């Protein structure tokens, strides 16, 4: 899948503003971003739901605009809000959708796969949030898709269900399925994805494997808590870098948190008889990358964001 | 064919499970038929009220299923994103529409069988002629009312469609000659009613199935216009997502 300079407008709001990326085959790609970043708009264009205002897009070698019926038999979808009738029973739903495909998966096997065999006759509205999401995932798999779009697959799912869904997604990859999922859960992206695309305000901020992204940002600062009102200027001279008290008693030392730097800070505090707590070397997780990127995108103060409920 | 059958079977199962749908499509026409046949309070000019009511409730059944059940059902499917999800599957619009048409026709056939049986039990005498015209009018009426129901469903939120379809149902029930003969309405109201889709449908079915009755000349053209106009409006304005 290949996306170049994609622009998607939703009414008067530019939801996606010139995004380019590729999704490698047989791998899991996570589209990560806060609510309103443009993730769903991007995916809904690729799924053929939303028209684009600019750019070129190729999904399984086809343009999603106008080739939707051809793509529908090769692509699996999990929409953000299910789109499943409230009175339908899981077995019924899967057998309905399986009739749309030439070589569908057996509904009973699918129910087993997502752990819903016992609930096969329970109306959708009486399933828990997690069970509803699992059914929605099963629905995405009915047609044995080559490509899977999962929009917030674990939103509103309990811990156990989340693990089940993540394990299932990993298994699909090992069978050769290409997966594009959106999430605002950083741990999920870090744990699942081979490739992460970070988006905010309709723009792509960064992309790469989780380890590449983290490596590019690691060791950005050192944080600690101590008594408020310490002489940060003196510590800054000593450590030869900027030190600031970001909130009363919370200090940030800008610069690589090497063992030497940690020792200098600790010594300085010891000499003054100050207590040191909550010492952290920040910048080692995808979360830090994400926070840094989305925070700087926000201070750019560009166009308004689209807030989806 | 497999996809159409799969879709139709699910639609049928879901609609049979919806109690309020069943109430509108069978309960209300049956209640009107039985109650007003037994309690002779309607200002009909026939000897036995069932002779007037039997064909009239057949028209009512068409309106309930094609406009109310179809409209409300589709409206909520749109609101819940069911149509959006189906749109991302290989089912396709053509087969989706075909499944809906089948659902409406099958429901109407069941309704007519139940209502005709009840009417015969209440003393209605089986009309020897006029069925072809009655069925023809039912088909046109189905197109007209389905068009109205889908025009509502495709443009308004599910709950609004629910309210409007039910309100329209009540108004047309009272002014469409289904319980009160058109002649009994004040002239201005009867004139307006004749321009609607319900009155011509009732007039044709009643006129065809009642001995010595005739179908007024205005009925067929009016119904035909509705049968074309309403579906065209529905098709051109329908939005699949809310």
Kindly list the characteristics that best describe this protein.
heterodimer, A: 309 residues, alpha/beta, Rossmann fold, Alpha-Beta Plaits, six-stranded mixed sheet, four-stranded antiparallel sheet, 13 strands, 35% helix, elongated, disordered C terminus, B: 242 residues, mainly alpha, 10 helices, 76% helix, 0% strand
The number of distinct helices of chain B, counting runs of at least 4 residues, comes to 10
Low-confidence stretches of chain B: none
Question: In which order are the strands of the major sheet of chain A placed?
Answer: 5-6-7-3-8-9
Round the Cα radius of gyration of chain B to an integer and report it: 18 Å
Q: State the fourth-level CATH superfamily of the domain at 2-74 and 146-215 in chain A.
A: P-loop containing nucleotide triphosphate hydrolases
Output the radius of gyration of chain A.
23 Å
Largest sheet of chain B: none
As for the CATH topology of the domain at 2-74 and 146-215 in chain A, it is Rossmann fold
The pair of chains with the biggest contact is: A-B, 29 and 26 residues
Shape summary of chain A: elongated
CATH-level-2 architecture of the domain at 2-74 and 146-215 in chain A: 3-Layer(aba) Sandwich
- The CATH first-level class of the domain at 2-74 and 146-215 in chain A comes to Alpha Beta
Q: What average pLDDT do the residues of chain A reach?
A: 87
């Amino acid at each position: 899948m290949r996306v170049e300079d994609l622009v998607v407008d939703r009414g008067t709001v530019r939801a996606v503003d010139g995004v380019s990326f590729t999704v490698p085959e047989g791998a899991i790609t996570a589209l990560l971003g806060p609510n309103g970043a443009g993730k769903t708009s991007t995916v809904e264009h690729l799924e053929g739901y939303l028209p684009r205002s600019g750019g070129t897009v190729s999904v399984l070698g086809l343009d999603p605009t106008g080739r939707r019926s051809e793509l529908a038999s090769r692509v699996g979808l999990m929409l953000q809000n299910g789109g499943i009738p409230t009175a339908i029973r899981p077995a019924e739903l899967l057998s309905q959708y399986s009739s749309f495909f030439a070589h569908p998966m057996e509904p009973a096997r699918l129910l087993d796969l997502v752990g819903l065999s016992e609930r096969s006759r329970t109306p959708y509205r009486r399933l828990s949030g997690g069970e509803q999401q699992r059914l929605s995932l099963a629905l995405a798999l009915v047609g044995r898709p080559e490509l899977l779009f999962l929009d917030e697959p674990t939103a509103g799912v309990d811990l156990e269900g989340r693990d089940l869904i993540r394990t299932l997604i990993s298994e699909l990859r090992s069978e050769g399925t290409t997966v594009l999922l959106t999430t605002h859960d950083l741990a999920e992206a870090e744990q699942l994805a081979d490739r992460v695309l970070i988006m905010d305000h309709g723009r792509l901020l960064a992309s790469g494997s989780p380890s590449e992204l983290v490596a590019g940002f690691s060791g950005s600062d050192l944080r600690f808590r101590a008594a408020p009102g310490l002489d940060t200027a003196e510590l800054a001279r000593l450590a030869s870098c900027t030190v600031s008290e970001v909130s009363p008693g919370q200090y940030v030392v800008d610069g690589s948190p090497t063992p030497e730097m940690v020792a200098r800070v600790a010594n300085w505090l010891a000499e003054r008889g100050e207590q040191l707590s909550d010492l952290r070397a920040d910048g080692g997780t995808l979360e830090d990358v994400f926070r840094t990127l989305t925070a700087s995108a926000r201070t750019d103060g560009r166009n308004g964001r689209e807030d989806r409920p | 064919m497999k996809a159409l059958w799969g879709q139709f079977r699910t639609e049928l199962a879901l609609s049979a499970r919806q109690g309020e749908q069943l109430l509108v499509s069978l309960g209300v026409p049956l209640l009107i038929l039985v109650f007003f046949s037994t309690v002779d309070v309607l200002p009909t000019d026939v000897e036995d009220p069932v002779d007037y009511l039997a064909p009239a409730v057949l028209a009512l059944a068409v309106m309930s299923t094609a406009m109310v059940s179809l409209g409300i059902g589709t409206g909520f499917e749109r609101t819940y994103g069911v149509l959006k999800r189906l749109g991302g599957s290989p089912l396709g619009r053509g087969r989706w529409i075909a499944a809906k048409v089948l659902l409406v026709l099958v429901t109407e056939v069941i309704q007519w069988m139940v209502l005709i049986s009840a009417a015969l039990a209440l003393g209605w005498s089986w009309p020897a002629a006029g069925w072809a015209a009655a069925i023809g009018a039912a088909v046109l009426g189905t197109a007209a009312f389905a068009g109205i129901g889908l025009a509502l469903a495709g443009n308004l939120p599910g709950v609004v469609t629910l309210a409007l379809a039910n309100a329209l149902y009540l108004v047309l029930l009272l002014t469409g000659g289904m319980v009160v003969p058109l002649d009994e309405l004040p002239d201005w109201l009867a004139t307006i009613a004749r321009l609607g889709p319900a009155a011509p449908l009732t007039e044709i079915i009643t006129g065809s199935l009642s001995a010595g009755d005739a179908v007024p000349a205005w009925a067929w053209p009016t119904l035909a216009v509705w049968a074309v106009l309403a579906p065209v409006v529905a098709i051109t304005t329908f939005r699949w997502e809310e």
